[in-house]
Design goal:
The structure is a homo-oligomer of 14 chains of 88-residue chains. Chain A is mainly α and 88 residues long. Chain A has one domain: F1F0 ATP synthase subunit C (F1FO ATP Synthase, Up-down Bundle). Chain A is rod-shaped and about 65 Å long. At the C-D interface, helix 1, helix 2 and helix 3 of C face helix 1, helix 2, helix 3 and helix 4 of D. Chains A, B, C, D, E, F, G, H, I, J, K, L, M, N: Keywords: ATP synthesis, Cell membrane, CF(0), Hydrogen ion transport, Ion transport, Lipid-binding, Membrane, Transmembrane, Transmembrane helix, Transport.
Chain lengths: 88, 88, 88, 88, 88, 88, 88, 88, 88, 88, 88, 88, 88, 88
């Protein structure tokens, strides 16, 4: 196997696994936060505005970890410095 | 094995595993959120509108992680830059 | 092993594993949602319409992740671009 | 090992594993849903019709993921495009 | 190893593992459902008929996933198309 | 290793593992069901007949998955079609 | 390694692992059932006869799965058809 | 490696692993049963005789699975038919 | 494989895995903290300011561990001292 | 590697692993039983004699599984029949 | 592979894995502590100062374990004694 | 590798792993017992003598399993019969 | 690979893994202790001094296990006797 | 690889892993015990002396298992009999 094949193969594998593994925890964490938001709204409807606002800030923080993974995954596919080096 | 075979084989493996692994957590997280929404509606029927709206925003956030994986999976199958490089 | 054998073998393996792994979480998530729907109906029979409607929307969202996997699995079996390339 | 042996061996392995792995989650999810249905009937006997109807819809949704796996498994055994290609 | 040995060996392995793995979840799911049925009967003896009927429908649904595995296992042992092909 | 050794070795391995793995879930599921039956009898002694009857039907269903595995295990040891083919 | 060594080695390995793995679940299931029986007797001493009887029937059912494994294990050590074939 | 070494090495490995793995579940199951017995005695001191008797029967049943493993382990060390065959 | 290929391949693999694994725990920990904040707001609306402030400090602490991983990942992709050494 | 080295190496490995693995469950089971005994004494001080007696019988039963492992471990180190055979 | 490649490759792998694995537990532990702080503030708002102070001391202790890992990771990347030795 | 190296290497590995694995369960079991003792003392201060005495007996029993592992570990390092045989 | 490379590579790997694995449990244990301290302060504010003091003693004990790992890790990087021996 | 390299490499690996694995359980067990001590002090402040004393005895017992591992680890690094033998 020459360098191009190896670097290409590795980039494919890691691009996929990074987003696959990296999407596990955010989805579970967000499910947990959303579930609790719904429970809180049912319990204290008058505070639904505060609850929604806090929920959205929290979801944004949690989603950020998924986005870190997505960014790395996209860099590996379309702006991979090692691929550019071996292809050059 | 030549480069085309290796890159093709790797793309198939990762395309499948990415969506397979990536669909685990969203499905569980959404099940968790939906279950809690149903519990909240049963507990506070008057707030079913607020609960539904919050639920749908939450499901969209959670589903987004599954969609990241589906996008990477589709890119690997139909717009794979490494495949195009070796096939060229 | 020549290219045709390798690509064929890989497609079979991943087609099966994708739907096998991909069906784990939706089945558990749906079981969780259905179980909670039944509990909510028993608790608040008057809201069974709202509960059913929310349940069906939720099941559709959860089922969608299983369908992503089924789609990838079917593409690998019957519309596999890599197989078409090596068979050509 | 020639192509026919490899493709045949792979098809047997994946046909079995797909339905074996794919039957885990539906069985657990259905057990969960049925158990909750029985609890709900004991708690609210007057709603046993609504509960049964919702249960059967839910079981059908959950069973569908097991059937996806069974379909792939049967395709691999009796309508396998890769086997037909190498046997030809 | 010639083709006959490989296909035979693979069929034995998968026939056993399919039913072994495939019997895990139904047994646990049925145990869960039966346990809940007994709890419901103790709680609401007057509904034991409805509970039994729902239990048996549920057990049949759950058992079906074990039977899918048993069918695949039996096909691999006694009606294996790949074995017939290599033995011919 | 010749064919007879391979097929014999594989049959021994799978015969043992099938019943070993296949006995895990039934034992746990039956333990769960029996434990709940005892709890129900203590709670509602007057229904001990109904409880026992439902328990025995349930145990039979659960035991059936262990028996599927035992049957496959015995077939592999004493009525193995692949062994008969290579021994012939 | 000749056939006798391989078949002997395999029989030893599987005889041990079968009973080792096969004794995990019955011991846990029986511990669960016995613990619940003790709790039920403490709660409802007047029904200790019914509870004991149901417990012993249940323990016999659970023990049966351990005995299936012990039987296979003993067959592999002392009445192994494959060993007899290669030793002959 | 000659036959004697292989059979000896395998017997040592399996003799140790069988009792090591086989002692996990009985110890946990017995700990569970004893803990519950102590809780029941504290709750219902007048029934301590019935509780002790049921506990000892249960411990004997659970211990039996550990003893199956110990028996196989001892057979492998001191009455191993395969070792006797290769040593002869 | 020459040095450039090995160092490049390793950097890709670790850059992806570091952020993938490193995003698991922060997402779950943040989900946990957000869920509890929502529950606390519903329970004590008058303290929502103190709760929000404590939540944001906590999220920042938790997010910091994800950022450590992202930093290492970016260093490996774009400021890798070992890559610079071998490329030189 | 000659026979003496292999048998010696295997004996060391298994002697260590047997007691290491075999001490996991008894320690946890005994911790569980002791914890419950302390809870029972706090709840029913007048029965501390009966509780202690039952605890010690139970600890002896649980410890016995650790001792089985210790015995096998010591046999492998100091009375190993296979070592004696190859050393002879 | 020469020494420089091996030491470089190993340093990359371990630098990434150390911070990746080492950030799991602090994130979960901090999430746990923050969640409990929020619950305590909601329950006892008058003590929010004491709670915040104890929380920050605790977070610092927990964060220290993540920082140990980050330090080792940075040493491996930028002050690696083994790299300096082989590069010299 | 000659015999001395192999036996020495194996002894080091197993001496370390035995005490490492063997210290897991006692530490957890003792933590469990101590925690319960503290809870019992808080609940029933008048019985703190009986509780302490039972705790120390229990800790001694649990510690014994760690000591078995430490003994085997020390034997392997300083009184290893296999090392003495190959060194002789 | 010569001795220097092997010993260097091994030292890097173990230095990283030791602190990575060794920081898991202290972080979780400290999170657990801190969370409980906050709960106790909220419940019994008058005892916050005693609680803080006991917490800090406990945190020091728990942190000590992380420090053991950090010490070993630092010894392997900067005072490694085996490295000094091979470098000499 | 010569003997010195192998024994040195093995000693490094096991010295690190022993303390890394061996510190997991004590940290968790101590966290558990400390958490319970804080809960008991909050519940029964008058007994804080007895609780502290019992806690410290318990922590010493639990810490002892970590110290066994640290001792073995230090022996392997600085008083290793096998290293002394091969270095001699």
């Amino acid at each position: 196997m020459d360098s191009i094949t190896i670097i290409g193969m590795t980039s494919i594998i890691i691009a996929g696994l990074t987003i696959a593994i990296g999407s596990i925890a955010p989805a579970i964490g967000e499910g947990n936060a959303v579930a609790q938001a719904l429970r809180s709204i049912a319990q204290q409807p008058d505070e639904s505005n505060t609850i929604s606002r806090t929920l959205f800030v929290g979801l944004a923080m949690i989603e950020s970890t998924a986005i870190y993974c997505f960014v790395i995954s996209m860099i590996l596919l379309f702006a991979n410095p090692f691929w550019n080096a071996v292809i050059g």
